[in-house]
Design a protein that fits this description.
Blueprint lengths: L11 H14 L2 H4 L4 H4 L4 H18 L3
Length: 64
């Protein structure tokens, strides 16, 4: 069964923030394979949850 990457439903700024965080936490070289940070990109539910948390954080901090 071939893996299918999740669909990004956010904007390009949010995507860049996600990719920067994944790059920062990447352990592919140490594991000699796909690290958990990159494996997360295959999980639609996790991607949607991260996007929701970004939205919630921005909403909660908008009035400050």
């Amino acid at each position: 069964m071939a893996a299918v990457a999740a669909v990004w439903r956010g904007d390009t700024i949010q995507l860049q923030a996600l990719l920067t965080a994944i790059e920062h936490h990447c352990a592919c070289k140490e594991l000699r394979g796909c690290c958990p940070a990159h494996a997360m990109l295959l999980e639609q539910r996790q991607i949607d949850h991260l996007l929701f948390l970004q939205w919630l954080f921005a909403r909660e901090n908008a009035g400050r």
